Structures are given as structure tokens and as C-alpha cells.
Amino acid sequence: MRALPEWPWPTVMAHRCGGALAPENTLAGLRVCKAVGCLGVEFDVMLTRDGTAILIHDETLDRTTNGSGELMNFSDTSLWTLDAGSHHHASFEGEPIPRFAQALERCRALDLATNVEIKPAAGYERATGTAVAQLAMQGRDPGAVPPLLSSFSSTALLAAAQAAPQLPRGWLVDTLPEDWKTHCHALDVVSIHTNCAHLTEAQADAIKSSGIRLVVYTENDPQHARLLRSWGVDTFITDRPDLIRI
Ligand code: G3P
Ligand code: MG
Q1: Which residues does UniProt call coiled coil (predicted)?
Q2: Which residues of the chain have pLDDT under 50?
Q3: Which residues contact 141 (CB under 8 A, 6 or more apart)?
Q4: Distance 39 CA to ligand 2 centre (A)
């Protein structure tokens, strides 16, 4: 199988598309991310009841859209008219929930390194990992940089690995467990994505010495980011891509 180009590990990636500067998980966020000079982006992908992969963080619609209730109670057709922009600011009124395929295409057009967080609704871990990996491979220019897939769900990561073994994968954790090496080996990941608030210098050292890339979320403090950079952190996921400049 032909090797894909190496993932670029941008120093800064905007969290949920545009961080705090735009409604989360929207195409408007991608535009804003690019406009502030950010080279990479992270966003969350979940499946709808009909099996369409969309950008959304919560299993319910209430926090980020003008809809209400469980995502799984909505059919695809009724989702596309929801407003996922007004909750952030009136100037984003009418911003729709994007399909994953649309977001991928926009990232390619904007030349943004793309970290896709597989965010399965409970019980849909395997289906979501498989769907995201398959869609990430569809219509790809073989010479283009692939998306980096990450997840808190081991089941989703293993399903993604089975569906598209050639895509790079990252393992998401809140705090690093003692046996992290065993997990990384079993999941065959290239990176660990950990909470910036819990990372220690000793952990950073051990991860970097093992050859695994180190990504932290959600780093919004420039001074703390500089400290973690000195520990070897490769990539910072941030709500403030306008402030975190390393
Ligand atoms: O991928 C890093 C970060 O996005 C994980 O947390 O809850 O914002 O998806 P969350
Ligand atoms: Mg996320």
C-alpha cells in the first residue's frame, strides 16, 4: 500500500473549527481559522440517525443550535435547516450544521491540516469510526496530506484503523494513564492528545522519547503554551488561534 504524506503537525490548531472566534463546528469557523493565519483545525464528527457524518460536539442539539433534543431523534432532512450560528453571535445567523464531507472539502480548499475527532454517540462507536475513516478516504488525492483521526473511544479508533489503516490516528485522553504505551501500541496511534492542564514535564519527556507525537487541548494561555512547548509539545489545540502564537 502506498504511504501517505506525513502529517504536518502544525503548532496551532483551532478547536472545533474556529475556537472562540466563531460558532463551533461550522464552515464559518474554518473561514475564521484561516483568516487569523492558523494552519490547522480540529473538529468533532458524529453520525445522525440516518448515518450521515456531521460536525457536532454534543449528542443533543440545544447548546449549539436552535433545535432541541437528541440528535438521534432528528431525521437528516430536518437537521439541515437548523441555525448553528446564532448561539455564538447574531452575525452568524443561519450558519448550518455541516456534513463531514463538506468540511473536509473546505479544509482541502483552505489548505488546513485537519484533525477529525471521532465523537460517537453512545452505542455508535464502531459505526462512527468506520464511517469517518471511509469518508476521509473518499475522493482523496493520493498525494494530499490526509486528515489525522483522533478519539477518546478505543472502539472507534480500532474501527477506523480497520476501515482505513493508512490514515494517521491519535489517542485522546484527559489524564495520561500509567499504561499509556500499551494503549498506544494496541491502537497503533502516531500521537497522544491530552489535556494541557494535566500534562507533566515527565510525561511529556516520556512520550517524546518514545517517538509519539504530543498534542494538547485546550490551551488558551500563551504563557502556559510556551512552557509546554519547551517540554516538547508538537501541537496546541486552542480556542484562541489569534492569541496562541508559537
Ligand atoms: O480533540 C481535542 C478536544 O476537542 C477534545 O475535547 O470535548 O472539545 O471535543 P472536546
Ligand atoms: Mg473535539
Answers
A1: none
A2: none
A3: none
A4: 17
